[in-house]
Amino acid sequence: MRALIQRVKRGGVTAGREHRAIGPGLVLFLGVGEGDSEADADFLAAKTANLRIFSNAAGKFDKSVLDIKGEALVISQFTLYADTAGGRRPDFTKAAKPAEANHLYEYFTASLAGTGVPVKTGVFGADMEVEILNDGPVTIWLDSAADGKKKPGRS
Question: Which tens digit of pLDDT belongs to each residue from 35-81?
Fold first, then answer.
């Protein structure tokens, strides 16, 4: 499971007539890959909630979205699994099938909300317009397969 996380002053998503917005916090683009599990979702949710990418009074990254009482906007994005090695057209065969991806997307958002972060979402599988006012800019890439998920004691 992959997440592209942006620290934002505000963010919003529009799908059709529906608009959802957050104030300061995180906009997450979440990609679900073949073989991802609820354990991957729980790992990334906990990592996201506790990731210290907000500045303290001294300007150092020392606060999490929980610490600043920020919000999260989670948007499904299968294109995070694009494979461009074979030519000019991306191959998305490493992305999970829609039914499984939707299940894990919803599971992830519930897991993140369970940490205490207020969560809003995009609309799974829909064409959306996303607005982001990146703060910093700060953009972080997390991948449950490469980010120590199986290594005990990491935080």
Answer: 999 999 999 999 999 999 999 999 999 999 999 999 999 999 999 99
Q: How far apart are CA 28 and CA 48, in angstroms?
A: 9
- pTM across the whole model: 0.91
Q: How many residues does the chain have?
A: 155
For 66-109, list the strands marked E by DSSP: 71-76
Give the Cα separation of 43 and 51 in Å (integer): 12
133 forms bridges with which residues in the sheet?
10
Q: Which top CATH class is 2-143?
A: alpha beta
- For the chain, the domains span 2-143
Name the residue among 13, 57, 37 with its Cα closest to residue 104. 37
Kindly tell me if the per-residue pLDDT of 154 is higher than 80. Answer: no
Closest CA to 26 of 46, 49, 55: 49
79 is known as an active-site residue: yes
**Catalytic residue (choose from 14, 48, 79, 121):** 79
- The closest of 150, 140, 153 to 52, measured between CA atoms, is 140
Place of tokens 């506790």: 50
